[in-house]
Amino acid sequence: MVEAIKGLLITCDIPMAQFIINLNNTMPNAQKFILEILDDTHLFVQPHMADTIQYRLQEFRDSNTFEKPLGVRN
């Protein structure tokens, strides 16, 4: 018998996949959201976590973006 699981397929580059896997690994067991790691660039995750994953990715990007301080000249 076939068993279907509802989920969200994430396709990304390898560093972003590693970030998501690490995020999953930092969660308590009851909150882990990765259902299956399909390969280096594809993850199958619980659909209710989509907003949380996007938010954490945006936080990570914002923290790693250089902004030139105001008042500094070239």
From TrEMBL:
Belongs to the TFB5 family. The keyword tRNA processing does not apply. The keyword Transcription regulation applies. Component of the 7-subunit TFIIH core complex. One of its GO terms (biological process) is transcription initiation at RNA polymerase II promoter. In NER, TFIIH acts by opening DNA around the lesion to allow the excision of the damaged oligonucleotide and its replacement by a new DNA fragment. In transcription, TFIIH has an essential role in transcription initiation. When the pre-initiation complex (PIC) has been established, TFIIH is required for promoter opening and promoter escape. Keywords: DNA damage, DNA repair, Nucleus, Transcription, Transcription regulation. This is General transcription and DNA repair factor IIH subunit TFB5. It holds the Pfam family Tfb5. It is found in: Nucleus. GO terms for cellular component: transcription factor TFIIH core complex. It comes from the Eukaryota. It comes from Riccia fluitans.
